[in-house]
Specification:
By secondary structure, this protein is mainly α. 61% of the residues lie in helices and 5% in strands. The radius of gyration is 27 Å and the shape is rod-shaped.
Length: 241
């Protein structure tokens, strides 16, 4: 039998000791779950398990029909469960005149496995791309939320709770997919708004600090100088001098 393992956006083909008659069942369930998850942009948590490397299945020459049937089922599931599956899978085999139907021209188990390994590799790349898009989407939405609530006191724990993720995970996402860290991004947004309040609303320093949720005018001035290089008072004086 052939078994497909899917963890951390990787699919691995490994031999199993089960009988050939159970090949389709063993193959289809994990792949169905993986494809179903990806189709709804659900990203699995990290796994500590190491996946085995792909191995030759030449010893299973008698299982050609089962191998072809299993590969056909995986192909069908991919086309059925992935959004725009037909187009995506066709793209995997754009360089082959027969497209994904080249599967049915494989004449032995080794060739079926080679076809399946290529197909699994393409699925892996797709999964990895979608996981990255999903994470970027989270960061984009968090940035939007921060800008829309810039006048509030925003903490990592509170914002993470809004998006249903852990504070540590949100911090890691920001570090990886944003130009600045989470706290620094909040400070930049607040100081950008502070400059508008000082210039356009003619607010005093303590009024801007209060309007933007800072605990004190002193702390506001400290953050302002760290971001802008000058104090709020110096900034205003330079603007209107």
């Amino acid at each position: 039998m052939i078994l497909i393992l899917c963890t951390e956006a990787r699919l691995t083909v490994v031999p199993s000791s089960s009988t050939g008659s159970k090949i389709a069942t063993g193959l289809i369930r994990p792949v169905r779950l993986a494809l179903h998850s990806i189709s709804f942009n659900v990203v699995s948590r990290s796994s500590s398990a190491h996946l085995k490397a792909m191995e030759s299945l030449g010893n299973f020459a008698g299982h050609y029909v089962q191998a072809l049937d299993a590969a056909s089922n995986i192909l069908y599931l991919s086309i059925s469960l992935l959004q725009d599956g037909e187009s995506i899978v066709s793209g995997f085999f754009a360089g082959d005149p027969d497209g994904y139907r080249s599967l049915y021209k494989q004449s032995n188990v080794d060739h079926v496995i080679q076809w399946l390994q290529f197909f699994c590799g393409q699925l892996c790349e797709l999964f990895q791309s979608r996981r990255k898009d999903y994470k970027n989407h989270i960061v984009t939405n968090v940035r939007k939320y921060i800008n829309e609530h810039v006048s509030e006191r925003l903490s990592l724990n509170e914002v993470a709770a809004v998006f249903g993720i852990s504070p540590n995970y949100l911090s890691q996402l920001f570090s990886k997919y944003n130009d600045t860290g989470f706290s620094e991004y909040i400070n930049i947004c607040k100081i950008t708004e502070a400059k508008r309040l000082l210039e356009e609303e003619n607010m005093k320093v303590y009024e801007a600090a209060e309007a933007l949720g800072f605990e004190s005018a002193f702390y506001f001035s400290k953050v302002f100088k760290r971001v802008e290089g000058v104090s709020p008072t110096e900034y205003v004086n330079n603007k209107f001098s």
